[in-house]
Amino acid sequence: MANGSTANPAPLGLSGFALTTLVLSSFNAGLLSGQGVPVVLGLAAFYGGLAQLVAGILEYFKGNTFGYVAFFTYGAFWEWFYLTVAFFPQSLPYVPIVLWAFGIFTFVMWIGTFRANAALFVVFLLLWITFFLLAAGATVAGGYVGILTALAAWYTAFAQVLAEMWGKPAGAFLGPPPVKPKK
After folding, report:
1. I want to staple 156 with a disulfide (CB 3.0 to 4.6 A). Which of 19, 39, 116, 119 is the partner?
2. Higher confidence at residue 168 or residue 157?
3. pLDDT > 70: percent of the chain
4. What separation, in Å, do the N-terminal and C-terminal C-alpha atoms of the chain show?
5. Is the confidence at residue 4, as pLDDT, over 90?
6. Number of folded domains that form the chain
7. In a 10 Å sphere around its CB, with 0-12 CB exposed, 13-18 middle and 19+ buried, how is residue 80 labelled?
8. Is 158 exposed, middle or buried (0-12, 13-18, 19+ CB in 10 A)?
9. In a domain? residue 87
10. How far apart are CA 139 and CA 154, in angstroms?
11. Which of 172, 124, 171, 170 is nearest to 148 (CA)?
12. CA 33 to chain centroid
């Protein structure tokens, strides 16, 4: 499996992000009753939040600045979401400004994926679109794009796990970078 090296923390972070995003986005898209939204809170605190924070810290120690910034930031996003919904519901009318800010952040991070791989490029593309749709009040559309985002993130996570388990380079499953580096 990992043949003596440290594990890749990215699949953990991507999976925590994907599952939490899928569940919340299913509510946003209207596929599930809004009364069940509290079920997202536990996921936000622990899998979307804590697991991504841990993945970010592990990426830091691996020297991966992009992974560190992405996982730690989105882990903090989910912790913020949990705290806001659970303890400060009076601040919910101001959530759109936070979503706009995360949309801008995600758009900038998306530019960083141009030379990464196609799978990560798609995850960040769909995510900034999701944030902007939700910030603009297009909750149902944002929910559906959020579901696509979650599926793309899970694909990216599982591609890395399977590549390692099958002894293949991860790039074989993740696709080439959208912008080729100059030689």
Report:
1. 119
2. 157
3. 98
4. 33
5. no
6. 1
7. middle
8. middle
9. yes
10. 22
11. 124
12. 23
Is there a contact between 126 and 151 (Cβ–Cβ < 8 Å)? no
- Domain with 46 in it: 10-174
Print the SS3 string covering the chain.
CCCCCCCCCHHHHHHHHHHHHHHHHHHHCCCCCHHHCCHHHHHHHHHHHHHHHHHHHHHHHHCCHHHHHHHHHHHHHHHHHHHHHHHCHHHHHHHHHHHHHHHHHHHHHHHHHHHCCHHHHHHHHHHHHHHHHHHCCCHHHHHHHHHHHHHHHHHHHHHHHHHHHCCCCCHHHHCCCCCCCCC
pLDDT at 1 over 70: no
Token pair for 170:
């991860």
